[in-house]
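re: that chain from earlier
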Amino acid sequence: MCELLGMSANVPTDICFSFTGLMQRGGKTGPHRDGWGIAFYEGGGCRMFHDPVPSAESEIARLVQRYAIKSQIVISHIRRANRGRVCLENTHPFGRELWGRPWAFAHNGQLRGVKRLPLSGYRPIGSTDSEHAFCWLLGQIRERFPQPPRQPADLWRYVYTLSRELGERGVFNYLLSDARHLYAHCSSELSWLTRRAPFGQARLTDVDMTVDFQQETTPNDIVTIVATRPLTTNEAWTVMPPGALTLFSAGTSMVTFAD
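^ sequence. v structure.
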């Protein structure tokens, strides 16, 4: 299975600390050796990096680790291939445009028979069931809402409905963003934590590294981290229940839909 990492923050923030922990699981402390990728949202744009080599061995991953890109929404993924060969076009996150916004999607799990779902408006570039599911999801949204809905909650509820439908086909843990919100859907395993004042120290699980966030933040900062498995040993993570979809905006949990 793959692993996910996401961030939502109220101010542009770097994800170097959490990404350092995740990249160790890509071939060093974990078996996810089949590529990795990360998407940083910057205003109306989205900057992506992909590499089909293990993140623990990737020079591009080390560049991202050193290059403190500040963003309010981040989606990252390390891959353990089960559908589709190991290659650049099969690395997550996948990106598409809808309503003039860059959407990004990363998935952990397998979906039975998903490639039999008819597609409209979007086509996969690679051969993964994940990218097919993303193309189907966006196509359904585009058909239902040719223009952005006036009430954002209508979109959120529809994404939840589509997520439940896809989740019936197998394991469907995912992170999704439309440049405005971070969607986190738990099918089997996903956790999150929110850091806000008063900030303290955090210790990574996968590497000997500690950061004192009081020295790195302002009292007004709010940052939420979402991960397949908790990345730190001394913080209280919230474990999402299976079937739940939570939306985050500006570092805050806005709404949760659940079975």
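The domain at 3-241+249-257 is CATH 3.60.20.10 (Glutamine Phosphoribosylpyrophosphate, subunit 1, domain 1).
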